[in-house]
Design brief:
Strands 1, 2, 3, 4, 5 and 6 form a six-stranded antiparallel beta sheet that branches. Helix 3 runs antiparallel to helix 9. Helices cover 47% and strands 14% of the residues. With 290 residues, it is α+β, with helices and mostly antiparallel strands. The relative contact order is 0.17. It has ten helices and six strands. The radius of gyration is 30 Å and the shape is elongated. It has two domains: 110 residues, no CATH class; 129 residues, no CATH class. Keywords: Membrane, Transmembrane, Transmembrane helix.
Length: 290
């Protein structure tokens, strides 16, 4: 067995250089709520439509603005329906910390996203690498944690391929058990067995209130979830980015076209106020007199 497999039978991928294209940055680019954004956009369309008629900004500028608004509205819809729910609720750690959740909540979120995210099971090795999970394959010594009970409840099993540093792929059969409440704490048991040695390894991920590093572990677990969620639904994410950028370009182009149109083409002669007053006071003649 290669030396990198001893004691750590997997390899953790680093952060992508294209991280600024991930979901959390896209969500930040459309920070307004969906209802407010759409209502504002279509109200502006109505205002600009009337405004272009009054000041002669030109139809091309109006059309560019309308298409920019539609592109932005579509981007918001893609984000709302395709971005992971975890990211929409917690785009950064501050938004999570401000909720003042129990220390158990982050582990429930971790378990939920293991199942919900496409590559969710690949997060398990990261918890071992970062010493959040403890290997209990060999029964530990004296401990308060109900280690045996952690592997008894309902579970989900999935075969998960992981790439090695040498380019080869190892498939792990991973089984995750539902988290178990213990006192005021929460523990989650899971197992991993590779197709190389067929040895089942048992791990326990525990979030304990009396742990001196409880806050740091909760924070680390949060970032593991967020990093994985940020890369979900790649095609939808790139499509939403394209719509947002198209909206910005069309808006800039609309302003340029409107300015050029106003400078180069003369505005139509506006009717005098006297004409409006005269039309209101003096009724129109209907047909010739007999």
């Amino acid at each position: 067995m290669p030396t990198w497999l001893k004691g750590m039978p997997f390899w953790i991928l680093g952060v992508s250089s294209n991280y600024r294209s991930d979901w959390q940055y896209l969500i930040a680019a459309s920070r307004m709520s969906s209802a407010l954004s759409l209502a504002t956009l279509f109200s502006l369309i109505a205002i600009v439509t009337k405004f272009t008629d009054l000041v002669n900004l030109g139809r091309p500028a109006l059309y560019c603005f309308i298409f920019a608004a539609i592109a932005y509205a579509l981007a918001i819809l893609v984000i709302r329906f395709r971005a992971p729910a975890f990211l929409q609720e917690y785009p950064d750690y501050k938004s999570f910390d401000d909720k003042k959740h129990s220390h158990r909540w982050v582990l429930w979120q971790f378990h939920t996203n293991l199942i919900a995210l496409k590559g969710g099971f690949k997060l398990l090795p990261q918890t071992v690498e970062k010493k959040l999970s403890v290997n209990v394959t060999t029964p530990p010594g004296r401990t308060r944690l109900p280690v045996v009970t952690a592997f008894v409840g309902p579970s989900i099993e999935k075969d998960t391929p992981l790439k090695n540093p040498d380019g080869s792929t190892v498939t792990y059969k991973m089984r995750v058990h539902d988290p178990l409440n213990f006192d005021r704490d929460l523990i989650m048991g899971f197992t991993m067995m590779s197709n190389i040695d067929n040895v089942e390894r048992k791990y326990v991920l525990a979030i304990r209130e009396d742990d001196a590093k409880c806050d740091l572990k909760c924070k680390e677990l949060f970032w593991i979830i967020l990093t994985a969620a940020a890369k979900e639904n790649t095609y939808s994410r790139w499509f939403a980015w394209a719509l947002v950028r198209l909206s910005v370009l069309l808006l800039i182009f609309a302003v340029i076209v409107a300015v050029v149109h106003a400078l180069w083409l003369p505005a139509p002669n506006a009717p005098s106020s006297f004409k409006y007053i005269y039309a209101d006071i003096v009724p129109k003649t209907v047909g010739p007199r007999s």
